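example protein:
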Amino acid sequence: MARIFGNKIGILGGFSGSASEVEVLNFIYSSGSIRDPFTSGSIASIAVKTLTSSSNGAQGELIFRASDSNNLSSKGSPIMRLFHTGNNNEPRVGIGFSESENPLRPLDVKSSVDDTKGTELLLRSARTTQGALTGDEGGSINFTIDSGSFADITTTGSIAKIKTKVTDIGSGGAQGKLVYELSKGVGGDAVDAFEYGFNIGGQALYTSVQTASLIIKDFSTTGKSSFEMRDFTNNTRFSVNSGDVEISGSLGITGSANISGLPTSEPTTTGSLWISGSSIGHPNSGYLMVFNP
């Protein structure tokens, strides 16, 4: 059992020769039918674990436990673990880790559910009077540079933000889009540079993408980049690969088209090319047809 002493209320969580982990605070449920109130009657508890100790001092870890839903007779499993590591006192907050597992990052979250989903983080909307309105953000992750010279690191220090926006909402549910917000310049200005969702830009498609520019670059000399559009049965409708363009269907061009690199000898590819049009000076429609029979 832990002992409390001193006018500042110090809780003795370890001493020379004691176990590495000591339970210092236990919240119990009192009932005459429970044989061991500090184990099976424990609702939640806080323990300390001594990691290292010397004449200079000691280093430890806080372990927060809650009773198990599938084994009420046990003292519970760790919900959260807190400790420091490394020369710079790197914090570690581990959620869902057992005593034999180690959190590897400042915030490390692990689910214990044995299914295909993995660990899921839930970000909720913040309105208190109702769920949300169209245009509200459902949550965001802000990537910032921490500097005292910035007026506000959440705005002027922000270099990118991943957020969600509500596009429609009703009694049956909500519809939204995923937005990538990027900084523009060093003054805190930001723009929604990439949006992904249903019915963006007037296109009633689920995989609508809206952005200002798109650059696709080869990752290596052998790994050529490509761009493809396919129909529902996975047939290629439009393809760009290594500078070659392949179209399955019709091609409509509004404006001028410049074609260079035409062959100087008779082509051998079976097919035809038909070009037609007219102008003010030549009101009669004319055409040019090149074919290889």
Observations:
- The radius of gyration is 32 Å.
- The mean pLDDT is 82.
- The first strand starts at residue 4 and ends at 5.
- Residues 1-114 form one domain.
